[in-house]
Amino acid sequence: MTDQYSGYNILDKENECNFIRLKVDHSVAYSLGNGIHTNGIESFWAVLKRGVYGVFHNVSVKYMQKYVNEFCYRLNHRDNDEAFNSLVLLAVR
């Protein structure tokens, strides 16, 4: 799910992952109905940007994927009270 930004048009091309792109035109509505919207991903990028501006300050392109991975982990485990302990256990193995 994306908005109409032309930078996402590359996702419309045929690819080995068989992506299906749903586009939300914000000039018409903020969702396509049936739970199809861009609010979740926009929120994710906003949190990542706040992390870069507020905590990390200087992120190089070389390590950007690692920061994205960290924020994905945080988002996917936000309701898990044991997420930190699980992460530490993974790190020491």
As residue ranges, the low-confidence spans are: none
> Would you tell me the overall average pLDDT?
84
**Element order: H for helix, E for strand:** EEEEHHH
**Helix content range of the residues, please?**
40-55%
Using the CA coordinates, give the radius of gyration: 17 Å
Please give the alpha-carbon distance between the first and last residues. 37 Å
> Biggest sheet: strands, sense, closure?
2 strands, parallel
The structural domain count equals 2
For the secondary structure, the number of strands is 4
- Order of strands in the sheet with the most strands? 1-2
Quickly count the helices.
3
Give an overview in words.
- The structure is a single chain.
- The protein has 93 residues and is mainly alpha-helical.
- The chain has 2 domains: 1-36, no CATH class; 38-93, no CATH class.
- Helix content is 44%, strand content 10%.
- The protein contains 3 helices and 4 strands; from the N terminus they run ββββααα.
- It has helices spanning 39-56, 64-76, 83-92; strands at residues 2-3, 23-24, 31-33, 36-37.
- The strands form 2 sheets. Strands 1-2 form a two-stranded parallel sheet. The chain has a two-stranded antiparallel sheet with strand order 3-4.
- Strand 3 (31-33) and strand 4 (36-37) form a beta hairpin.
- The longest helix is centred in the middle third of the chain and has 18 residues, at 39-56.
